[in-house]
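Inverse folding, one chain.
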């Protein structure tokens, strides 16, 4: 009996069988209009081994579709899952099952269609021990998504079956409507641009500084639009074809100076068009991590399409609970929802006298309102990301950076006017709300995050306000908060949460942890309360008025499919996307700390703490709240009362559906206590700030979400558009993201690290043969790698950083750890105790490496232990002199005892002359400040004592000898693709036919495809094959003054280096041409093998000349 049936309407479609197996049936469909696509119907086996055939069949089918440039849709029951989160209940999914499916998609370049409706497509229909999975799905290739960007896979009701049917739907595109103006960063490369912009910005205007600025921007916008319409529509493809034709003609008249000049001019035009295309695509793709790859324009466009598809709102659940799919109705629903969301109804306008812990000083207020300096404003503009989305006026930060010479005086006048008058031009504060889905398949407006796109001139003002508030925030905001406060770390906040939860497994009474979620946090802030609170904190009335103007004057339009709809004001909330909002929200949350501190002080809430540790009743990071307390009924009621009072005043209400309470095992009546609080009871581990929070250290299974994060970043058809260099840069960004947070927040198991490194390595090599090992790739370029970082070494470096941060002692986490574990003992000699937490043991084990990278900056010497701290060239006096010293009691003594008048007096303790001289070499900086440790790794001088993760990583990574061919491989001006082909050549890792045979890959013919006479290996292909040699020899004769007899690239490099009489530019040109020849020969070899196409040696030379013209200075 057949396992798979495919039926279609024969009147409209003609179907032709392409492939058939017991798990996959592929049909090529063509309609009456000639449109053609491939459909794959899947029914995967339950057995993992038998599914291996399915994965190979899918890879082959996707390869066929790619070579024929056909859209491909594969759908059905795969009987496998991609991520651990695609299963609810039952046993966890084995890693190998996930890896098989992930590898298949990585090699095939397929990606999920957006899933809507019933996403849990299978369940066991059991009353108990219920299990649900996402087994059924639809996948598409890049050609599919280019043609059908709005297609979705809708899961239908299962009925009596245990599987939900999958219906692929095509959502109609909305009716065309002109999109708002958006400045393109690539325009400056086109003729006439500078004059057009200068003409608009220099227009005469009469009125306030803000009005004049906005007026000139409007004039400039109109001028740019007219200029863009008048630009000649010359495509890159047309120019490239024109250049190829000219180079063919040049072969018949190589001595023509006129044709040579025209060739150079055309090459420059082609390069300009390529650069324009790349700059524009990169701007809208917003891939800031891809700074050192090839021109990945196709990838950028795929990213843009994917983001447009992800953010496209195709269906909504309306206020009456009915599904809305009509675009006009969706627009009306969105405008209504957000106009109501930002409208204040029952908030109090009269507030009680607020008591805050600290007040801003008069000096602090004077700094806030100090005169605006041009340097301040210029620093803000120059440090901005030019790819950020513009506001309603369409001008991004890239425009301001490009034309700062003209704009700076006007901008400074507009900014200063706001600070002088406290008034904002209404038009300046208009805002577009772009809706970003919080989850896949979002169909309710509550599932979207409204991100405010503000005009950049307004953002300059608020960025300036933020910079001035930074210093004031340090003293105003308690150490319980870590977000947006300079010097405070989300990683340390997460570590402290782990330490506090670790207390749950210890005896000593009942304990509870409450994870509180605030409903629409930013959007519901009571603005009147915020301003009242700032006044209570001591902010001057003038500054509060400036803040009030910023948050109360905006008007809004909602972007649906990139087009603005509606126009409405607001009476509550802070805009997500306004630089000022995070700082103001932090001040609002500080009032929660005040209420909690009062409750703790009056013993209505009893926090979890030991006798010696600081009291930590709660932790706050932005809108993530964690409360830790003894869960007596009185304490639970008091916490509920605190949240109620805080919500009434601030507008921030508890989202009880997403809040949970977690109890220690010793706690009784858990359900009753949770009911009293009004939230659900949860079970540990739980995610907090993105990482697992558990009583014990994180296990491999608890870190599966980190593995999924890495997999999602590198999978799918978008990444398939990346070159080898682009894939390396994407992996670099994945490692950087992991290093920035995860590895500094928890002890990630080595097993998890190895999985992620495997995912990255597999992605770099497209799931095929790993021509170069991961360990080799992770070396610095000078040592034979590509400069990636080994996650194992990053993990070690993160441990060193953790120890360094602990040593600074300036955070709540370090204070808690010091009092909890050291208890008066010296950090440098404290022995590791079994009762210490995993993170503190990790800190202590990193002391030997840490002490080699730091030195003591001596001031008065009162905080430096004379005998135990390593303040003399990384050693302590106890280590230098030994544990015994007759007549000297070394406990409790500090370096102050041998300093007098800012000068060392080692003779006080009768040290040897040599030791006394070493002590005098330690510099003293007389000041009232405390002694500090400064970062000073061996061989590094940058940073003036500030910690640098790069130098920390360099301390722990393996080191290797430099390679001789570094200048050839990574030479200045060489295209990235050529650098990497030269890199593989130097290592001997290009997958020529002899190496493929060595890896067990069947090769139809081992002969070289260029000369078809000798067997192919690296040495032959590039320099011994007469076709390849003729290409290099011809270049040498034309441009290098002759050719040597060398037939090996290392000998050729030696010949280049031995030509000492030549200028340096000659050697650079020679290396550039050699690398270009290698890349083009390799490209030609692959075209002949995989595409059945060939180019003559003359054509290859022309292509080399084109590239060299582009790369040459």
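Residues assigned per position:
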């Amino acid at each position: 009996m057949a396992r798979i049936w495919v039926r279609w309407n024969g009147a409209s479609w003609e179907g032709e069988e392409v492939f058939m197996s017991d798990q996959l049936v592929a049909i090529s469909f063509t309609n009456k209009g000639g449109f053609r696509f491939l459909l794959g119907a899947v029914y995967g086996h339950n057995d993992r081994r038998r599914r291996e055939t399915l994965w190979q069949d899918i890879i082959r089918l996707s390869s066929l579709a790619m070579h024929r440039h056909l859209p491909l849709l594969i759908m059905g029951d795969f009987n496998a899952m991609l991520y651990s989160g695609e299963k609810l209940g039952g046993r966890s999914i084995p890693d190998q099952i996930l890896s098989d499916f992930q590898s298949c998609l990585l090699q095939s370049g397929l990606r999920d269609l957006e899933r809507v409706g019933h996403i849990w497509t299978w369940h066991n229909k059991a009353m108990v021990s219920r299990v649900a999975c996402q087994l059924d799905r639809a996948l598409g290739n890049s050609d599919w998504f280019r043609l059908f960007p709005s297609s979705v896979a809708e899961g239908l009701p299962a009925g009596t079956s245990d599987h939900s049917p999958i219906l692929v739907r095509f959502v109609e595109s909305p009716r065309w409507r002109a999109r708002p103006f958006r400045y393109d960063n690539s325009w400056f490369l086109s003729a006439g641009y500078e004059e057009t912009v200068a003409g608009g910005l220099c227009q005469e205007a009469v009125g306030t500084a803000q009005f004049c600025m906005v007026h000139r921007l409007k004039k400039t916008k109109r001028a740019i639009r007219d200029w863009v319409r008048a630009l000649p529509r010359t495509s890159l493809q047309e120019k490239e074809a024109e250049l190829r034709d000219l180079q063919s003609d040049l072969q018949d008249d190589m001595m023509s100076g006129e044709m040579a000049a025209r060739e150079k001019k055309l090459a420059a035009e082609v390069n300009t068009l390529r650069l324009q295309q790349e700059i524009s695509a990169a701007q809208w793709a917003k891939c800031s991590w891809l700074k050192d790859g090839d021109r990945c324009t196709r990838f950028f466009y795929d990213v843009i399409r994917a983001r447009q598809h992800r953010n496209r709102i195709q269906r909504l659940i309306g206020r009456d609970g009915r599904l809305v799919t009509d675009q006009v109705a969706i627009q009306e629903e969105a405008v209504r929802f957000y106009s109501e969301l930002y409208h204040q109804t029952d908030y109090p306008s009269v507030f009680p006298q607020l008591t805050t812990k600290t007040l801003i000083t008069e000096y602090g207020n004077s700094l806030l309102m100090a005169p605006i300096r041009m340097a301040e404003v210029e620093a803000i503009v120059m440090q901005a990301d030019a790819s950020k989305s513009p506001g309603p006026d369409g001008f991004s930060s890239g425009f301001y950076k490009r034309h700062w010479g003209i704009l700076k005086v006007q901008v400074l006048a507009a900014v200063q006017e706001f600070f002088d008058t406290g008034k904002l031009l209404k038009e300046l504060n208009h805002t577009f709300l772009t809706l970003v889905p919080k989850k896949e398949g979002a169909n309710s407006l509550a599932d979207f995050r409204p991100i405010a796109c503000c005009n950049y001139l307004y953002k300059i003002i608020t960025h300036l306000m933020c910079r001035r508030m930074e210093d004031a925030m340090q003293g105003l905001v308690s150490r319980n908060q870590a977000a947006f406060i300079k010097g405070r770390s989300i990683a340390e906040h997460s570590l402290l949460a782990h330490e506090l939860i670790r207390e749950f497994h210890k005896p000593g009474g009942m304990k509870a942890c409450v994870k509180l979620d605030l409903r629409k946090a930013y959007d519901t802030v009571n603005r009147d309360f915020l301003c009242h609170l700032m006044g209570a904190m001591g902010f001057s009335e003038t500054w509060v008025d400036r803040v009030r103007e910023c948050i109360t004057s905006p008007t809004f339009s909602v972007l649906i499919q990139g087009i603005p709809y509606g126009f409405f004001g607001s009476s509550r909330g802070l805009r997500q996307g306004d630089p000022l909002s995070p700082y103001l929200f932090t001040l609002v949350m500080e009032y929660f700390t005040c209420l909690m501190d009062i409750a703790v002080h009056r013993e209505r809430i009893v926090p979890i703490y030991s006798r010696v540790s600081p009291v930590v009743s709660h932790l706050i990071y932005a809108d993530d709240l964690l409360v830790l307390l003894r869960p007596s009924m009185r304490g639970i009621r008091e916490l509920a009362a605190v949240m109620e009072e805080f919500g009434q005043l601030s507008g921030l209400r508890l989202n009880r559906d997403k809040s949970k309470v977690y109890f220690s095992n010793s706690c009784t009546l858990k359900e009753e206590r949770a009911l009293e609080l009004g939230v659900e009871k949860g079970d540990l581990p739980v995610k907090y700030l993105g990482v697992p929070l558990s009583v014990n250290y994180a296990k491999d299974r608890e870190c599966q979400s980190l593995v999924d994060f890495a997999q999602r970043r590198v999978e799918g058809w978008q990444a398939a558009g990346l070159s080898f260099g682009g894939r390396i840069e994407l992996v670099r960004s994945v490692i950087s993201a992991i290093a920035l947070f995860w590895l500094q927040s928890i002890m990630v198991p080595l097993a998890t690290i190895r999985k992620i490194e495997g995912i990255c390595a597999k992605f770099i090599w497209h799931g095929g043969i790993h021509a170069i090992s991961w360990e080799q790739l992770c070396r610095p370029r000078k040592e034979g790698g590509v400069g990636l970082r080994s996650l194992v070494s990053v993990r070690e470096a993160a441990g060193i950083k953790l120890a360094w941060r602990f040593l600074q002692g300036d955070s709540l986490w370090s204070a808690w750890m010091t009092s909890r574990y050291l208890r008066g003992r010296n950090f440098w000699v404290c022995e590791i105790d079994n009762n210490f937490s995993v993170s503190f043991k990790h800190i202590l084990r990193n002391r030997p490496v840490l002490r080699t990278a730091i030195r003591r900056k001596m001031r008065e010497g009162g905080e430096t232990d004379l005998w135990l701290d390593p303040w003399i060239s990384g050693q302590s006096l106890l280590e230098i002199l030994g544990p015994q010293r007759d007549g000297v009691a070394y406990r409790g003594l500090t370096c102050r005892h041998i300093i007098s008048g800012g000068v060392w007096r080692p003779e006080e303790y009768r040290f040897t002359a040599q030791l006394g001289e070493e002590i005098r070499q330690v510099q003293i900086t007389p000041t009232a400040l405390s002694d500090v440790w400064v970062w000073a790794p061996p061989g590094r001088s940058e940073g003036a004592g500030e910690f640098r993760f790069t130098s920390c990583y360099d301390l722990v990574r393996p080191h290797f000898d430099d390679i001789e061919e570094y200048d050839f491989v990574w030479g200045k001006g060489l295209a990235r693709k050529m650098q990497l082909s030269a890199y593989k050549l130097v290592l001997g890792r290009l997958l020529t036919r002899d190496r493929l045979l060595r890896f067990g890959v069947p090769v139809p013919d081992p002969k070289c495809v260029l000369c078809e006479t000798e067997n192919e290996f690296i040495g032959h292909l590039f320099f011994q094959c007469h076709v390849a040699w003729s290409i290099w020899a011809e270049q040498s004769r034309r441009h290098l003054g002759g050719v040597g007899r060398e037939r090996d690239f290392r000998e050729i490099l030696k010949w280049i280096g031995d030509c000492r009489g030549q200028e340096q530019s000659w050697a650079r040109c020679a290396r550039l041409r050699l690398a270009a020849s290698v890349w083009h020969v390799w490209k030609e070899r692959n075209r002949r093998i995989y595409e059945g196409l060939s180019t003559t040696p003359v054509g290859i030379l022309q292509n080399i000349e084109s590239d060299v013209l582009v790369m040459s200075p």
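The CA atoms of residues 140 and 740 lie 33 Å apart. The mean pLDDT is 87.
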